[in-house]
Structures are given as structure tokens and as C-alpha cells.
Write a structure and sequence with these properties.
The chain contains 4 helices and 2 strands, in the order αααββα. Strands 1-2 form a two-stranded antiparallel sheet. InterPro entries: Tnp_DDE_dom.
Length: 84
């Protein structure tokens, strides 16, 4: 069980680094933020996931101050080319 923690921690660190490099490069406040800050501002989002007609939709709370940053980052992430 303890052997699984090291790869899990490495994957989390890599995900954080790639997110900063590819998605947050032009947002100085988030690009230089601590992992806990990014987690609280981008990953813990007030949203509702709905499914209709075989499509999933994420409805963000309009009053959430980081909605624009999350939307831009999500669009960038979905426009990245697929690995071949």
C-alpha cells in the first residue's frame, strides 16, 4: 500500500506542472500560486454536472470569481492535440 503513494504523488506533481505550463501560462496570479491555492480556486468549483442527449454539461455558478479563468483553461485543455 505504501508503494502506491509515491507514484500517486508523482502523478499529482506532474499534473500540477503541466497544468501550469499549458493552461495557466498567461495568468500570473495562478501560474505562480501554491498547489493549495490552485486547488481551492480551480479544482473546488461550485458547479453542477448534467447529462442530456448523451452530452455532459458543466454548469458553473456565475457569481464564482474564478469562472472566467476556469472556462479559459478548460477551453485550452480541450483544444490540445491528441497524443499519437
Amino acid at each position: 500500500m505504501n508503494a502506491a503513494w509515491v507514484p500517486a504523488a508523482m502523478i499529482a506533481a506532474d499534473l500540477d506542472a503541466w497544468t501550469r505550463l499549458l493552461l495557466l501560462h498567461d495568468e500570473p496570479e495562478l501560474a505562480a500560486a501554491e498547489p493549495e491555492t490552485i486547488r481551492m480556486k480551480l479544482y473546488h468549483l461550485p458547479a453542477r454536472l448534467t447529462a442530456h442527449a448523451r452530452r455532459r454539461t458543466l454548469h458553473l455558478d456565475r457569481s464564482w470569481p474564478w469562472a472566467a479563468a476556469f472556462t479559459i483553461d478548460w477551453q485550452r485543455a480541450t483544444q490540445l492535440p491528441a497524443l499519437t
